[in-house]
């Protein structure tokens, strides 16, 4: 589902951009960071490098599709932002394999629940 959303957002007509030059690169990086981090929480740790590579290649493929579409532009810097986001998401997943589960526990922690030491 998230892959389809990323792909459809990448080939859709651009609506508006922030007035800061290069601000869309932050969005590209963040999208691929979150995409890779989320999926990396669902696969075995040994599969994370393959997943990272798959999402980086997805970013490259989408840029080529955008260039071929006629209404979007091909941008190597978008590819780099996508790849860097995937690399950071995969890196965090390897460094902290339960990062999203811990975040969920922190956000939804009931203060009366004493079963979770350390919080």
UniProtKB/TrEMBL annotation:
Q: Which residues cross the membrane?
A: 50-68, 80-101
Which Pfam families does the UniProt entry name for this protein? VanZ
Top-level lineage group: Eukaryota
- UniProt keyword list: Membrane, Transmembrane, Transmembrane helix
Domain VanZ-like, chain residue ranges per copy? 30-94
In terms of PANTHER family, this protein maps to:
DOMAIN PROTEIN, PUTATIVE (AFU_ORTHOLOGUE AFUA_3G10980)-RELATED
Q: What is this protein called?
A: VanZ-like domain-containing protein
List the source organism. Answer: Saprolegnia parasitica (strain CBS 223.65)
- Give the lineage: Eukaryota, Sar, Stramenopiles, Oomycota, Saprolegniomycetes
């Amino acid at each position: 589902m998230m892959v389809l959303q990323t792909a459809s957002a990448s080939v859709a007509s651009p609506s508006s951009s922030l007035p800061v030059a290069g601000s869309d690169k932050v969005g590209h990086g963040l999208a691929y960071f979150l995409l890779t981090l989320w999926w990396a929480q669902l696969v075995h740790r040994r599969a994370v490098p393959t997943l990272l590579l798959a999402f980086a290649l997805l970013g490259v493929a989408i840029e080529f599709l955008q260039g071929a579409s006629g209404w979007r532009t091909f941008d190597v810097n978008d590819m780099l932002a996508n790849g860097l986001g995937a690399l950071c998401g995969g890196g965090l997943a390897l460094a902290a394999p339960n990062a999203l589960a811990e975040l969920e526990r922190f956000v939804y922690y009931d203060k009366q629940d004493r079963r979770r030491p350390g919080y």
